[in-house]
Amino acid sequence: MTSSKPNSIAHSQAPYDPGAIERKWQERWHEQRTNSPDLDRPARPFFQLMMFPYPSAEGLHIGNVFAFTGNDIYGRFQRLQGHTVFEPIGFDAFGIHSENHALKVGTHPMELIPRNIENFRRQLRRVGLMVDWSRELSTTDPAYYKWTQWIFLQLLYKGLAYKKKAAVNWCPSCKTVLSNEQVIAGHCERCGTAVEQRFLEQWFFRITDYAQRLLDDLDWIDWSETTKTAQRNWIGRSEGAEITFEVMGERAGENGAPRITVFTTRPDTIFGATYLVLAPEHPLVPTITAPAQRAAVEQYVARTVKQDLVARKVTEKEKTGVFTGAYARNPATGRDIPIWIADYVLMEYGTGAIMAVPGHDERDFQFAEKFGLPIVRVVAGEGEDAGTPLTTAYTENEAGRLVNSGAFDGLTVAEAKSRIVRWLEERGAGKATVNFRLHDWAISRQRYWGPPIPIIYCDACGIQPVPEKDLPVLLPYIEDFRPDDSGVSPLARHEEWYRVPCPRCGKLGRRETDVSDTFLDSAWYFLRYPSTEVDDKPFDPVRTRTWLPVDMYIGGNEHAVLHLLYTRFITMVLHDMGYLEFAEPFEKFRAHGLIIREGAKMSKTKGNVINPDEHIERWGADTLRTYLMFLGPFEEGGDYRDAGISGVRRFLERLWASAQEARSDGAPDEGVLRKLHQTIKRVGEDIPRLSYNTAIAAMMEYMNTLRADERTPHRAEVEPLVVLVAPFAPHIAEELWERFGHRESVFDAGWPAYDPARIAEEEIDLVVQVNGKTRGKVRVPVDVTQDAALAAALGAPAIAKFVTGTPKKVIFVPKRLLNIVA
To answer: What contacts 672, CB < 8 A, 6 or more positions away?
Structure first.
């Protein structure tokens, strides 16, 4: 920190006016491009990424400000560490959130969303973020979604994009497909409408091909553990076996006996499988159903289709099902067992069929009891045998041994799993396999506001990709963009748009009228930021090598199994195709917490939503930023209370006054300097671990020392504090730094160093216990001996009164504790 240092602050004393100061510095940052680094010649490049917002409502909410401020503090701290920090932002402006808002207010999204973005941009500037606005992007810009469509084509070329008919969750109010994550207790998370199941032609990405790699990398990537746990659970790796059951009797069909394959993690219980259950939509159901059962089966299937997929997974609900009239042979026992259908079995998991072992699965047990199906024990615990009756499913399986299982009796469960699988493999009735809970990513959306999927259908040539030279496929302006209940996109109502020549044969074809999932837009946006001005490629190779992967990404954990999983998948695919040199997109990811207000979650119905504009107008952006970070640990969040923000404002006012009053004559106080160096160390350690609240507390504590007894501080005691405050309150820090006579930005000053010799305490407060109970503290030298500590304790009347006679024993823990056993 070298510059001219006048003997007094460069301006006469003036009251702290955050409005004027913040306007001044925001204008200067913009005019001088302070936050726009040279991307081609950076010194120690550091890419600080924040999750870009949906510009779908009236403006930013306080949760956005909380998240962006936490990001910004980390980025500003890295700049003070000597890094060239790139901190871009953009707008995730396509998708159902934006379209629903447009429908709600009755304005076309092509008119509304640019206005929303302008308002968001204004608010973000007021917050004082270190954003490089020259790199701003919007997913609705054709120059951006041209490359979103290009990515779709790359997956198509690689065999990772395909189309099929599938069961999906359908919201009859939003008129579109919902992912399982968007269904809460059988209702749409957006509008609360009961969700239905439909079968629609959808485009999918084969993310399941990457399931194991996505899982394996979680062992080493530096991410929040909560996020990694959520992804592990969502990917859901299960080791087990596929077992084949042959359909018997008349229902075998004209082409021989159909075979039903099930996946199970418990092949050791095959001898206890007393019936099979198929998903009602399983393709074999119409084939194997007996004439006498056909009406009942068809009615049950029709009822099931009306349920959403998430509600069908609820384990506590009453079991329902219908017997098909068909039987299959258990390959272990040789017995024929009945085949049922039930809504708790889903086509999306495993094979869409299960072998039911009611003796050792609670759900199967309840089903068997309700419908009078056999229950056989095949695992017995301590003190049990093959004949011990079952009053509930026995699930303490790992401690048990096999019974009623032929040659495998007596084996432990672990032993039996591998032995039985090998036995089934020898008979052509099974094989060891791994299954994943993760299923392929459905990217089709039957809405208007999104990038058109770049596909043309030709009666002669089939599915044809739009040639890359013809990208982007522009989203047309149409007046009737409201979705309907037909299950097709509003674009399908516009033949003038979708009727185009086949790129292969030239005959009239038809464009794909679905648009792609907004999560595809956000799965690659961070790759585009360094190359926003590049027209002929999605990302410049040299810039990408320089700046990526992202150094730090901070965002909400609600995106753990959607956005954050999809970004990893798309990055891996682009890496495999040779476009990227890295397979994981983010060196580090941290999930931030959530803000509540006065003990309650914020919502419009409760009337407790915080408008950041009002609070910035009243308190200033620096005060709001610092208060939000003071509420609690950043990774947990906190409770916003109006009474609390005034304390932070007083802290900044005291900093302002201290800088104005600081003297340059004489020497600084050694005790204050010791506290300063301790504070530099503490804040410098707290910020990298996102302990912003404790960093602020340390600075407030130092302020109390600095101004104890209304003393006049020395400039050397104040100036480093201005730098410590800078990441939290950048405007006041820039202003005071300039007033101290410095010409460069405070963020080019470098982080202040602390002297290890100075931070050592000369004295400590030693806790004193008598017979294990704390009776007080005594002030002693840091290297005090046991005898000297005892003498000090006995010399303190408040402690000595609890000690009678000579102590029987003394327990001394240096620098921490003295316990006198009297």
So the answer is: 705, 706, 713, 714, 717
Going from the C-alpha of 588 to that of each of 231, 773, 803, the distances in angstroms are 15, 45, 55
Which residues share a beta bridge with 239? 434
pLDDT tens by residue, 95-115: 988 898 899 899 999 999 999
Task: Return the pLDDT at 804.
Answer: 86
Give strand pairing partners of 201. 165
Query: What gap in Å lies between CA 192 and CA 171, rounded to an integer?
Result: 9
DSSP state of 481: -
Cβ-based neighbours of 115, under 8 Å, separated by 6 or more: none
Question: Token digits for 788?
Answer: 């000297």
Q: How many residues are listed for the chain in this entry? A: 822
Helix (H, G, I), strand (E, B) or coil at 422: helix
Cα 236 off chain centre by: 17
Contact call for residues 87 and 135 (beta carbons, < 8 A)? no
Helices (H), 707-785: 715-725, 730-739, 756-759
SS3 526: helix
Q: What are the angstrom distances between the C-alpha of 682 and each of 668, 673, 679, 703?
A: 21, 14, 5, 14
| pTM: predicted TM-score of the whole model, two decimal places | 0.87
**Distance (Å, whole) CA 795 – CA 820:** 13
Are 91 and 52 a contacting pair, CB within 8 Å? Answer: yes
Note whether 148 and 521 are within 8 A (CB): yes
Beta bridge partners, 168, equal: 198
d(CA 196, CA 188): 10
Give the pair of three-digit tokens for residue 366: 């309840």
Tokens (6 digits) for 559: 């995106």
Helix (H) or strand (E) holding 651: helix 642-661
Helices then strands, each counted (H, E), the chain: 26, 34
Q: In sequence order, what DSSP letters do the residues of 708-719 get, joined into one string?
A: GGGPPPBHHHHH
